[in-house]
Write a structure and sequence with these properties.
The chain is an alpha+beta fold and 116 residues long. It has one domain: Alpha-Beta Plaits (2-Layer Sandwich), CATH 3.30.70.1350. 28% of the residues lie in helices and 39% in strands. It has 2 helices and 6 strands; from the N terminus they run ββαβββαβ. Strands 3, 4, 5 and 6 form a 4-stranded mixed β-sheet that branches. The longest helix has 20 residues. The mean pLDDT is 87.
Length: 116
């Protein structure tokens, strides 16, 4: 996403609804951070305020690509699947838009601090 706001639009019988990609990214971030094993989101592009979340519309469906850091001790495939389901459910229930894919990149592992 660039500095200009991009919107995902859908029409219904009363008119048009425009949802900012930043809103979809915020919904995605909140859902991902609720998953056990996700330590934080990563931001490979420091100037991007969506913390490493990219939203794209393909054939009337939303595609989400995100990068996360996981907490040591969790299984990567299980945590990734849980993030995919959480993000998909959150976007579809809050916006009514269909999600075709949630791509999760695990950028690293966060180790808990050692106890003295």
């Amino acid at each position: 996403m660039s500095d200009s706001k991009d919107y995902v639009s859908r029409s219904d019988e009363l008119g048009n609804i425009h949802i900012s990609e930043e809103v979809l990214a915020a919904i995605s971030a909140a859902a991902a951070l609720e998953v056990e094993g996700v330590a934080c989101l990563t931001n490979p592009n420091k100037k991007n305020s969506t913390k490493g979340i990219h939203i794209k519309l393909e054939e009337e469906q939303v595609v989400v690509t995100m990068s996360v850091l996981m907490t040591y001790g969790h299984t990567i495939p299980e945590m990734g699947k849980a993030v995919q389901e959480a993000v998909k459910n959150a976007i579809e229930s809050m916006t009514g838009l269909a999600v075709s894919a949630v791509n999760v990149n695990v950028g690293g592992i966060v180790f808990p601090p050692k106890e003295p």
